[in-house]
Hints:
There is one protein chain. The protein is mainly α. It has four helices and no strands. The protein has helices spanning about 5-10, 10-20, 25-35, 40-60. Helix 1 (about 5-10) packs across helix 2 (about 10-20).
Amino acid sequence: MTLLGFLLRGREQARVGVEEPGNPAVDPALLAAFVRSGGYDRQLRRCRRACRERRDTLTAALGPSTSPAPR
């Protein structure tokens, strides 16, 4: 099962058809649907926000002797 298949179709449905050998068109089709639906953009925004929060927490914990990473 691919992660993308799980995200788009759910745990049970992702097992059907995705793991079958000789069907390479399934993953590109799922990726295309994920991008078209806006899911990829939402995932990128969520990851960026999480990374920014982690970076800010780390720089705050290290104290004023460190400068924040360039944005």
